[in-house]
Amino acid sequence: MSGKPKLHYFNGRGRMESIRWLLAAAGVEFEECFLKTKDDLTKLQKDGSLLFQQVPMVEIDGMKMVQTRAILSYIAAKYNLYGKDLKERALIDMYVEAVIDLNELIMTHILQPADKREQHLATIVDKATNRYFPVYEKVLKDHGQDFLVGNQFSRADVQLLETLLMAEECKPDILDEFPLLQSFKARISNIPTIKKFLQPGSQRKPPLEEKDVPKAMKIFH
Fold first, then answer.
1. Do you find a cis peptide bond into 56, omega within 30 degrees of 0?
2. Which residues of the chain have pLDDT under 50?
3. What domains can be seen in the chain, in order of their start residue?
4. Which of 68, 97, 132, 136 is the most exposed, having the fewest neighbouring CB atoms within 10 Å of its CB?
5. What distance separates the 2 farthest-apart alpha carbons in the chain?
6. 13: number of CA atoms within 13 Å, CB side?
7. By the 8 A CB rule, do 110 and 208 touch?
């Protein structure tokens, strides 16, 4: 288990996507081993690769890491994307946890029954524009710096950008009332490693479509 990190998941966004984003932002090349059937998952479970019997799983530095937040924290610390001291790390964690809450809400949109989808989208827009985005807009306004924490690029910037782009996929004008977030999006998108990840042909995954849901469900259920 040496060399590039190896990511075990299905060929779609899900919980692995933030891990892909963070590795890409750190400039780390990684390999992907896609689960295609329930048997692929069962094999990993039976050979003891999955501590809690579930993916995402990332092979890195001789470990088989599971639990998305633990993996993200490890990558952030390893590649200096986690602030310069405990207070900055705490701030980054707070910002990231809120981003994850919104990200999960957006991620589950495609899984909603057709008759609930409109209401679910309204919930996403409401929480994004009234609970989450105003906080990040205020942070950027109050300190006047390019990045969320310590005027240094961190996992908080990466994960916020990922979620801003996902929110725009749901509602293209969702950032209209947030000029500082718009400029933040443009600025972070221009960081060379991220710019590369946003290009066609990268390992970034497209939004899950309705036709893909049954394939994913067959692996996990």
1. yes
2. 1
3. 6-79+198-219 (3.40.30.10), 86-190 (1.20.1050.10)
4. 97
5. 52
6. 19
7. yes
